Amino acid sequence: MKVLRESDYAYLHTRYRRNKNLGMVLSIVGIPPIILGSYFTNWIALFLGLLLASIGVVCLASSRNYRAGIEGEQAVVKALQVLDDSYSIINDFKSSVKSGNIDHILICPKGVFVIETKNYSGDIRCYGERWSKKVKGRLYDIRSVSYQAKNNAKYLSDLIHGKTNLSLFVEPICVFTNPSMKLKIYKPTVAIRQVDGLAEFIMEFQPKTTITDSEIQMVAKCILDAHSE
């Protein structure tokens, strides 16, 4: 597999460090008011200390999620290394006209794939477009991973058409990288895979149409150009 763009995961690293540092500071700053408030029965100081410490804990948890995101994206790239050089990958695509990023874009004769990577833990459920997490016997709605993947695929398809006049359907894939996660799927609207089965799924994928080498080069160039804009 040819790597057309490496990722330094700068966005995730920045968010990881920012949340980690803020979480540690707030947790430490919150300790003295808690001690003083408890000793002198000062409810205002106690409340302030607990509030600071609670926000610190949330920030630390968020930093761990960003770290897990980095590890998840690295796991996808590693899993796809078994693909031959007819496959090209662009990692961590971001355009100035689109908020957020696309984790991975895979281009090959079979077409273009958008890969949305998640390193979720716990018991995750998918029912069509609706996603939820089961915690202590209760289901809580979470952001729709399939909708996110389809939205990215639609954006990329429109970008390619606008820059090359090629009308290509971009195939969205949701990939989960945490081996301990439990995943239950019913009537999914996109392909959903664990990272261990991703390369096999792509190699066995049967497209309705194929694209030529020259079209692959056009597509890759327009995406890389859009990233640098």
Structure description:
By secondary structure, the protein is α/β, with parallel strands linked by helices. The chain has one domain (2-228). Helix content is 48%, strand content 25%. It is elongated, with a radius of gyration of 21 Å. The model has no long low-confidence stretch (mean pLDDT 91).
Helices and strands in order:
Layout: E1 2-5, H1 10-40, H2 43-79, E2 88-93, E3 102-108, E4 111-118, E5 123-127, E6 130-135, E7 138-142, H3 145-164, E8 170-176, E9 182-186, E10 191-194, H4 198-204, H5 213-228
Parallel strand pairs: 1-2, 4-8, 5-9, 8-10
Antiparallel strand pairs: 2-3, 3-4, 5-6, 6-7
Helix pairs in contact: 1-2, 3-5
Question: Can I get a quick summary?
Answer:
The chain has 229 residues and is α/β, with parallel strands linked by helices. It is 48% helix and 25% strand.
Helical segment count: 5
- The run of helices and strands is EHHEEEEEEHEEEHH
Report the radius of gyration as a whole number of Å: 21 Å
Rounded mean pLDDT is 91
Based on CA inertia axes, which overall geometry fits?
Answer: elongated
Low-confidence stretches: none
Please bin the fraction of helical residues.
40-55%
What distance lies between the first and last C-alpha atoms, to the nearest angstrom? 25 Å
The fraction of residues assigned to DSSP E strands is 15-25%
Number of strands: 10
Instruction: Provide the spatial order of strands within the biggest beta sheet.
Output: 1-2-3-4-8-10
